[in-house]
Each structure stands twice: as structure tokens, then as C-alpha cells.
Amino acid sequence: MITRGDGKDQGGTMHGFPVELQNGALSFPDRVPHAVHAVSARKVLVADQDGVVEQLEFDRGLGLFETYYSMTLRRRHEEHPRA
Predict the structure, then answer these.
(1) 83 lies in a domain?
(2) Residues 37, 58: Cα–Cα separation, whole Å
(3) Position 2 in a domain
(4) Per-residue pLDDT of the chain (83 residues; tens, 9 = 90+)
(5) Is residue 30 part of a domain?
(6) Quick one: how far is CA 46 from the chain centroid?
(7) How many angstroms separate the CA atoms of 82 and 79, rounded?
(8) Across the strands, what pairs with 15?
């Protein structure tokens, strides 16, 4: 399923972009990392019960995405919630 999303860049400017939801993964275009020679990049987010796995993938122009990084963001579980 492909739809449109809106988001702000680091400078606060609003941008519209396509958002794709496929097999529980949310993906959208992102900036190509400076360290690689690529024509496009995308961010992929996959939620699980404890948080989100975020990946940045890039395409060198062959239509195949390679992982640039992957990190797991976990919810913080507190015994005593803040007041």
C-alpha cells in the first residue's frame, strides 16, 4: 500500500513524500549517505512489541537496496512513571 506523508527536515521545512506499507514495514525515501555512491535511499521502520527497528538502505542504481545501518530503538520501561 502506497500513500503520501508529510514530514519536516532538520531545518523545519515541510516536505511531502510517498510512504509504503508492506509486510509490516513502513518505508519512505531518505537522503543518500555521503559515504556511499548511490542514486537513492530509503528509511525502513518495523515495529515489534518492545520498540522499533530502523534501517537506512541505499540503491547504487541497480534497483537493489543494501543496508547502510540498522538500529533498534526500545521503549523505556519504568517502574515508577514520572509525575
Answers:
(1) no
(2) 9
(3) no
(4) 778 888 887 888 998 889 999 999 999 999 999 999 999 999 999 998 889 999 999 999 999 999 999 999 998 777 666 65
(5) yes
(6) 9
(7) 10
(8) 7
- Distance from C-alpha of 53 to C-alpha of 43, rounded to nearest angstrom: 10
Structural domain count, the chain: 1
Could you tell me where the DSSP H helices lie in 1-83?
A: none
Range(s) of the domain holding residue 38: 17-74
Amino acid identity at 43? K
Is the separation of the CB atoms in 73 and 51 below 8 Å?
Answer: yes
Q: Is residue 28 part of a domain?
A: yes
Chain centre to alpha carbon of residue 67? 11
Residues in the chain, overall count:
83
Give CB contacts under 8 A, 24+ apart, made by 68-77.
68/33, 68/36, 68/41, 74/50, 75/50, 75/51
